[in-house]
Fold this protein.
Amino acid sequence: MNYKIETIGCQMNVCESDIISEFLQKKGWQDVKDINQADIIILNTCSVRAQAEQKAFSFLGRAEELKQEKTNVKIVVIGCMAQRISQKIKKRFTKIDLIMGTDKTPVEIAAKIEKLSVKNTDDIFTNSGNDKKKKLDGKKIVGYFSIMKGCDNFCSYCVVPFVRGREKSFDDKIIFDKCFNFIENGGKEIMLLGQNVNSYNYNGLNFSGLIKKLASIDGLERIRFMTNHPKDLSDELIETIAAEPKVCKHIHLPMQSACDKILEKMNRKYTYAHYLDLIKKLREKIKNISVTTDIIAGFPGESKKDFDDTIRAVKEIRFGGLYAFRYSPRPDTKAANFDDDISLDEKQERLSAILAEGNEISAQITSEMKGKIYKILTDRYENGFLEGRTTCGRKVLIKGDENNFGKILDVLIKEVKVNALFGEIV
Ligand code: SAH
Ligand code: SF4
Ligand code: F3S
C-alpha cells in the first residue's frame, strides 16, 4: 500500500504524523510524496487560524477530485479540525472514508487506517533507490517526543484548549524509556513537545526535573524543547538550561504583544515588564542564548500606539527569530466575542511591519556568525551536503560526505544567505 500524509499545523501534528507513518511503514506500507501515487491519502489538520483550515479544505478538494477518477483511493482526515468540526467536514466532503480527532492516540488512528487497506494490485508504485536516503533521514538523529497534551491557559484568541483538551503531563518513566530507546537506536537529539512544556508536572516532577533526568541518558547529545509560556518560566528552569550542557541554548518564548492592555485582553497573565525581565535574566545567565518569539498583529482593540509598543519591543529585545500572524477570530474562543475592529488591510500592514523589523534584526544577528566556529549536529545528508543545526537552532549546510552524518562537527561559517548558512568542517 502507498500512502501520502499531508501535515498542517504545529510540531505536535508533525510528531503524530511521524508516529502514524512509522506504524504503517512497519506494516510494509510505502510513503509517497505524490498524491497521485497514493492508495490512501491522510490529511492531518490544524485549526489555529482560519488560513490553516482553508488550506485543509483546498487539499480535500483535490483529494476528492482524484478519488473521482481512482475510486478505490481512501481519504482520511485527522487532527484538530477533525476534532473541532468533523460533522461539517463530512457534510462538505462526502468521499472521506475515515475521520478521527485528537481524542484518539496516533497509534489508535494508525491501526484504524491500516484496516482501510484494500488490495490494489494495479499500478503498484515502488520507490527503489530511496532506501539509502531513508536511513540517513533526519528523523533518526532527531526524535520528537510529546511530554504532555492539551492546554489549560485559555489565551482569549486561541482554539488549542478546545481542540486538544485539558493539559495533562505524561508519565516521566514512559518518556524516559521512549527517549532511551531512541538513543539506543542511534538517535542523538530529542525535542520535547508540548503547548506549554515549562508547566510540565507529573507527580511533583517539574520540567527542570524531567530535563535533568533525561540528560543522564548516555549517548544523548542534545535536548531541545518547545513551546514555553512566559508566565511559567521559572528561575529554576533558567538555571537548568544554563547548567546542563546537553540543553540547547535556544528558547522559544511567545510574547504575542508588548502592550499590557492587549496582553490582559489576551489573558496572557504577564506584563511586558515581566517579559523583558525574563529576557534579561536569560541573557545574563545563559551566554549566547537565542530567543525566538510569536506575535499577533491586529488583535481586537489594538490601537496604532499599542502596536507601536510591540514594534519598539521587537527593536529593544532583538529576537533571533520571529513568527508573526494576523489575528484570526476562532469559534468558541473568548476573543471571538470581541469586536474584530482592525481591517484586514491594517492587520496586513502591521504584520508586514513586524516581519520587516524582525527579519532585519534576525538577519543582522545571523550575519555576525560569519567567520566563527560552531558545533553542528548533522541530521540530514543529501546530494553531497550535510545539514545540521547550531545549539542556538540555526540551520547550516556543509559540503561533506555521509560519514559525517549524525555527528557533532566544528564548522566554520563561510557564507550567510537569506535562509541558510554555509559552513566548512574545520
Ligand atoms: N502553545 C503555544 C502556541 C500555540 S499556537 C504558545 O502558547 O506559545 C502558535 C501561535 O499561533 C501562537 O503563539 C500565536 O502567536 C498564534 N495564534 C494562536 N491563535 C491565533 C489566532 N487566533 N490568530 C492569530 N494567531 C494566533
Ligand atoms: Fe493557545 Fe495560550 Fe495554550 Fe498557547 S498557551 S496553546 S496560545 S491557549
Ligand atoms: Fe494547530 Fe492543533 Fe497544533 S490547532 S497549532 S495543530 S495543536
